[in-house]
Design goal:
Length: 1272
């Protein structure tokens, strides 16, 4: 792979036509010296000591024949051509058809590798024969010597080149395999029904399963090649040892019985491991995406405990797989270790029976051949568990691909005219097979008209919109649309991570229409918001719009729908989080006589319960029980319709619109700065940094570490010593045969025991022990991090620590540590024996050692940076994938599937660029080390030729046999060290995260409240100024006294600081000046955990649910209640019990000894909530918590954050009654954030309750009379 000129070593694309040999020679010298000064690198970002960081754009693009887009298309076409009905081989065969050309490419170099590898025993035999020739004046001796040296050069250089060519083609095969698999998974994901998707399943398949399959093709090639090597080796062995040649085959057969056991039991256990990993990833992803709500509810430790339990279950399940690996490794090593001992013992006994001694020529040649028989046989058996695990991943992927795709049953209406007639026609639609959600619904929507859907919670309004979108297929009836491209705003707006401008412009081609863009901003009242933000519309909004208020998120989503200029717009309760004045202004801008939707002639369906929007509507449909109860214009139905929600603003109509205070730290949220910072820290870290090793060893445990070190040292000694023992045996002239036989077998037994101990200590002791502690440490850091941490870091980047880093820590790091120990001790032993056999070779050790040290040092620095680039780009792939899944309905409605596909292809290629470059760099390193080993081996042959007569045959045999494995040991040493250092990057990132992430744990919070505190619930703000950071002030000089038992309703324009008021109470904002007191105690002295769990009961507008947990755990996550009757009674009072219990059965019928059959069912087993039902459910959770705390003697303050925004008027009235009965009547202080003041006057207590208006982070007014406030 050629990387361009010397001036731009890392910028030019590799030439796809260059030869492999040139690629490997050219890649290293050009990449390594320029790693400190990559092309395109900004001099303003220096590293330590003049070193600089490689950035993502420094790595060259992939060759054209590795295009992710190309192989995604090929894989989709191949899968679509599969035979039906599908068998287990359907996906493997489809994959093989997709990658057939790169799949066959490694065959030729692999055959040459076999040829050169099996020429080595012949070279050893010829060399020993040359040394032991007793005819010094034999003709042609000098010529034989020259040919011997020439043969050595050909064999060892051929080995190096063929290995490089073979591995290079395998690398390309690995890249295209992953491209094909990730591409087909993503293709399937975006075609599944949005209601049934499980993003954790797709993420696990795309990461864990696909990563395990990128080496599947290599396993296939190694299987046939090494099986062929076994056949060749047996043939050569039969010429050396005669009739005992079948002995290795017998041992192979016996050991293969373990392979059958592994093949039978490993697959299901591997699937079980992947499944629990998927569950943990799902829980972690859910926790990260809802961290703000979790902290408000005081549930971060509950969620951390829940995730920790899943991690423990994951490691427990993994142990079943790991024990099989230990047993299998023992049987495989049994073959490789005992075959030489048994074969040579029998050969020596056979020779003794004939009156002969074991000679050096036969012994060392047989030893070499046996290593070439047992090693490939061992590798083939080692491949079996990997292949089983890989095919288990293929089965999971195939099962995912066979899920039924979304079938769009809509019909496209014939276009009689582009701007006239019906744009939507719904006729007699029924949704729901067993329980009808919609029943016989028919509506028509004309171009340029506004149709409003209204109705109580759960009446089917959102379901009807999703049916029009094509996300739900009706069981009866028809839906006709003029265009399948529709603007869609869901109740919970989906906003991808990026700037506000990117979110509004979406993925359309008309992003450069600045004039239209400005009109959209003005119409959605966003211009004033953007003026106050540090970067304007380039401000990053964060994952899921975390840095925006609920109203701002809705307005950005509405602006996106307007900017797209679609013929049809479906808007699902898009004004629920807006104050009355702002929503009326936006409504007029969009739907008034000169509104933009009217000008665009767009057919609009708006879901809302606000009666103030009814008069301008062309048609109103009121749904109830899944059917249309009332329909017509406002004039036609106004006397029949029930009263709906009313809103009004405390602000004068002629007041100037107040720009909101910024809500958070709008720092750029790309994952790149965080990873780049960590990369800088890792770059300045010296190779073998003892501080980092010690940091990791703390998690490993000193006893486990000592156990591993002892086993690796013992194995390395006992596996190498037989070479010297064999030399002594062949020089004994047949004396003390029993002694040498027993000694050889004893050494084999000790080495086998030691290697089993190494595997056991690494896999059974270190991996689960360190994995559990490190995960817990990471979980503690993240769960204790302040809200600003999640605002400034992308969720995908954080999740990557729990997925990719955990994979490194679980699977690679313990193995790399064990392998490094093995290779270090083995190399020391082999070098010692080599110097004993050929003392003159000791002179080459300083030169070789210095060369290897320099090469690996430069290589390691560059490889670490490339690894960081890979992790950074993988996090971007993960983030993009998660966002795509979460916004699937929106993406499909706008017709952005092709753009999302292109984005996935680009992100995938970006992640593979540093990975492919790193693999090329590794091949260069291996080639250089192979050439060094070849030089030493040629030197041994040359010395044997030059010193003929002065050197013993045993010395030549030992030296050449050691060289058979010494270069492999050296390669594996560098690879193990590199793998360890790269894997330690996960530990370095953890250490950096621990160092740089602030914690909410406050040492100054030393107040120890008595049992049942707070007893009154009086809250006092004294000149409070609260900030998100130094540049983002949320509250400004707030002074307010809230008496015990008082109800305060906070209102104001969206972004005015209402939610910030609650966040300050929960200590989720930093109080810059002033103080907040609860029952006379400064809350700064109260630990945050206690404050959120015991002092406040918070009910948030963003409902937090755990579908994989039980109904009981969702309602009572802290296990405060032990009485099922209380939970059931509360569900009945809020009207949700009927949603869970079968009709006609009483709660008493559900009690059983093994748990409650409803409360202990997973929440996902019940029908899905509507948005309103989800809000009522979270309210039920708050009621139960308040009741539990009252039983303990406390009176916590109740915080209600827009909890009625998705409710219809009658349901809201019922909920207000619940507030009064459950909270106000029982002495709780209530602080409520609400835009809906219409029904509050009915529930306000004169001269007791207050309505507080906020403006620009300040308290503007406080009144107890809503009418007086309205007229103020």
């Amino acid at each position: 792979m050629r990387l361009g000129s010397s001036d731009s070593a890392l910028c030019s694309p590799p030439a796809p036509t260059c030869s492999v040999f040139a690629a490997h020679l050219a890649t290293g010298p050009r990449v390594l010296p320029t790693a400190g000064q990559p092309a395109g690198y900004s001099p303003g970002e220096p590293g330590a000591g003049g070193q600089c960081l490689l950035l993502s754009y420094d790595s060259p693009p992939l060759p054209r024949d590795l295009s992710a887009k190309l192989f995604r298309q090929a894989m989709v076409e191949s899968w679509n051509r599969r035979a039906r009905p599908e068998t287990k081989a359907a996906l493997p065969l489809a994959l093989l058809r997709c990658i057939r050309r790169p799949f066959v490419a490694p065959i030729i170099p692999r055959l040459f590798l076999i040829l050169f590898r099996y020429s080595q025993p012949a070279l050893i035999r010829r060399s020993i024969q040359f040394v032991t020739d007793d005819v010094p004046s034999a003709a042609g001796v000098e010529t034989r010597g020259y040919w011997l040296v020439f043969s050595a050069v050909t064999i060892y250089v051929g080995l190096a080149v063929s290995t490089a060519a073979y591995q290079h083609r395998l690398n390309k095969l690995r890249v295209v395999t992953k491209s094909a698999l990730v591409g087909i998974i993503h293709h399937k994901t975006i075609s599944l029904p949005s209601a049934t998707h499980d993003n954790s399943e797709a993420v696990t398949l795309m990461s864990t399963d696909a990563d395990g399959l990128d080496g599947a093709a290599e396993m296939f090639h190694e299987t046939w090649a090494q099986s062929l090597e076994v056949v060749i080796g047996i043939f050569l062995l039969s010429r050396e040892v005669g009739s005992i040649w079948p002995l290795p085959l017998i041992l192979i057969f016996l050991c293969s019985r373990m392979s059958r056991y592994v093949a039978k039991h490993l697959g299901p256990r591997q699937n079980a491991w992947n499944t629990v990993t998927q569950q943990r990833v799902a829980a972690t992803s859910s926790m990260l995406s809802s961290m703000k709500v979790i902290k408000m509810l005081g549930l971060q430790h509950c969620m951390a405990s829940f995730t920790r339990r899943l991690r423990e279950e994951e490691l427990k399940t993994a142990s079943r797989v790991r024990w099989i690996m230990v047993y299998y490794n023992a049987s495989a090593n049994l073959l490789g270790i005992f075959s030489p001992a048994i074969t040579l013992t029998l050969s020596a006994l056979a020779a003794a029976r004939r009156g002969l001694a074991l000679n050096a020529e036969t012994a060392f040649t047989s030893m070499a051949i046996l290593s070439m028989v047992t090693h490939p046989a061992n590798m083939v058996m080692t491949i079996v568990p990997r292949a089983v695990a890989a095919f288990a991943g293929l089965e999971r992927i195939q099962a995912y691909l066979l899920k039924p795709r979304l079938l769009d049953g809509r019909q496209t209406r014939p276009s009689a005219g582009e701007t006239a007639g019906l744009a939507i026609k719904v006729h007699d639609v029924v949704v729901g097979e067993h329980h009808s959600i919609l029943n016989g619904v028919s509506i028509g929507v004309n171009y340029g008209s506004l149709v409003i859907l209204s109705g109580p919670v759960g009446s089917g309004k959102s379901t009807l919109l999703r049916a029009i979108l094509g996300e739900i297929r009706p069981v009866h009836g028809s839906i006709q649309v003029a265009s399948r491209r529709m603007a869609y705003c869901s109740q919970q707006p989906w906003l991808p991570n990026g700037s506000i401008k990117q979110a509004i412009c979406g993925m359309d081609d008309n992003q450069d229409d600045i004039q239209w863009y400005q009109r959209v901003l003005e119409a959605c009242c966003l211009s004033h918001d953007l003026e106050l933000l540090p970067d304007g519309d380039e401000t990053e909004i964060g994952s899921g719009g975390l840095n925006l208020s609920g109203g701002q998120r809705q307005r950005v989503a509405l602006a996106r729908a307007l900017f797209a200029r679609c013929d049809i717009a479906l808007l699902d309760d898009v004004f629920s989080a807006l104050d009355g004045d702002t929503e009326m202004r936006i409504f007029r801008n969009l739907f008034g006589p000169t509104g933009l939707f009217r000008q665009l002639n767009t057919a609009v369906v708006l879901v809302t319960n606000s009666a103030q929007f009814f008069p301008p509507a062309d048609l109103i449909r009121v749904l109830e029980g899944g059917s249309i109860k009332i329909q017509g214009s406002w004039e036609e139905i106004r006397h029949k319709a029930h009263s709906s929600i009313s809103k009004f603003s405390l602000q004068h109509q002629n007041d100037r619109v107040v720009a909101p205070a910024p809500l958070s730290n709008f720092t750029k949220l790309n994952a790149q700065p965080q990873i780049r910072q960590e990369a800088k820290a890792d770059l300045v870290r010296k190779t073998g940094d003892l501080g980092l090793y010690w940091y990791y060893f703390r998690f490993v445990g000193l006893f486990n570490l000592a156990l591993l070190a002892g086993c690796t040292a013992s194995y390395s000694f006992f596996i190498t010593l037989p070479q010297q023992w064999l030399k002594l045996w062949t020089e004994s002239s047949g004396q003390n045969q029993v002694f040498y036989v027993l000694g050889f077998i004893l050494l084999s037994l000790l080495s086998w025991t030691s290697t089993n101990g190494t595997m056991w200590s690494a896999v059974i002791r270190i991996a689960p022990h360190s994995g559990l502690i490190i995960h817990q440490h990471l979980l503690t850091i993240v769960s204790n991090a302040p809200l600003s941490f999640f605002s400034n870091n992308d969720n995908g980047s954080i999740l990557a620590r729990f997925t990719q880093d955990m994979q490194l820590i679980d699977k690679q790091l313990p193995s790399a540590l064990a392998n490094l120990g093995n290779q270090i001790f083995k190399l020391l032993a082999q070098v010692l024996l080599l110097c004993i056999a050929q003392r003159r070779l000791a002179l080459s050790l300083p030169v070789c050692g210095s060369l290897v040290w320099i090469i690996q040092k430069v290589y390691l620095r560059t490889s670490r940076q490339l690894r960081f680039l890979e992790l950074e780009s993988r996090a971007a792939v993960l983030s993009s994938f998660l966002e795509s899944v979460e916004g699937l309905e929106t993406i499909r409605s706008f017709g952005w599937l092709s753009e999302i596909t292109d984005q996935n292809n680009k992100r995938l290629e970006d992640s593979q660029r540093p990975e492919y470059l790193l693999m090329c760099l590794q091949r260069w390193l291996n080639l250089v080390l192979d050439m060094i080993a070849a030089t030493v081996a040629i030197g041994i042959i040359a010395a044997a030729v030059a010193l003929r007569g002065q050197i013993q045959a045993g010395q030549v045999g030992v030296a050449l046999n050691i060289m058979l494995v010494a270069n492999t040991t050296l390669l594996r040493l560098i690879e193990s060290w590199t793998s360890l250092e790269v894997s330690l990057g996960a530990i370095a990132r953890l250490q950096a995260l621990e160092t740089t992430t602030p914690s909410e744990f406050d040492k100054n919070a030393i107040f120890e409240p008595p049992r049942g505190w707070p007893t009154r619930g009086q809250v006092e703000f004294k000149g409070v100024t609260a900030v998100y950071n130094a540049e983002a002030v949320a509250l400004r000089g707030v002074t307010l006294t809230i008496n015990a038992g008082q109800k305060i309703t906070i209102c104001g324009r969206t972004g005015s600081g209402k939610s910030s008021f609650l966040l300050a109470l929960l200590r989720m904002l930093d109080v810059q000046s002033g103080s907040i007191e609860l029952d006379g105690v400064n809350i700064a002295k109260i630990p945050r955990d206690f404050l959120r769990q015991r002092c406040f009961v918070t009910v948030s507008q963003d409902g937090f649910l755990l579908p994989s947990e039980t109904l009981r755990s969702n309602l009572d996550p802290e296990r405060l209640l032990g009485d099922d009757y209380i939970i059931i009674d509360t569900l009945k009072r809020v009207g949700l019990w009927s949603h869970f219990s079968p009709a006609g059965q009483s709660s008493k019928e559900y009690y059983r000894g093994d748990g409650h059959p409803i409360l202990d069912q997973k929440l996902s087993s019940f029908s899905a909530f509507s948005a309103g039902q989800a809000q009522i459910f979270t309210l039920c959770r708050g009621i139960l918590k308040a009741e539990a705390l009252r039983a303990d003697g406390g009176r916590p303050v109740v915080l209600l954050d827009e909890v009625t925004s998705a409710l219809d008027s009658s349901t809201e009235w019922a909920v207000q009654r619940i507030f009064e009965a459950e909270f106000a009547a029982k002495g709780h202080t209530i602080i409520m954030v609400s835009h809906r003041l219409g029904q509050l006057s009915e529930f306000m207590r004169p001269r007791t309750d207050l309505v507080v208006r906020m403006r620009d982070g300040r308290l503007e007014s406080a009144v107890s009379d809503l009418k007086g406030a309205a007229g103020d």
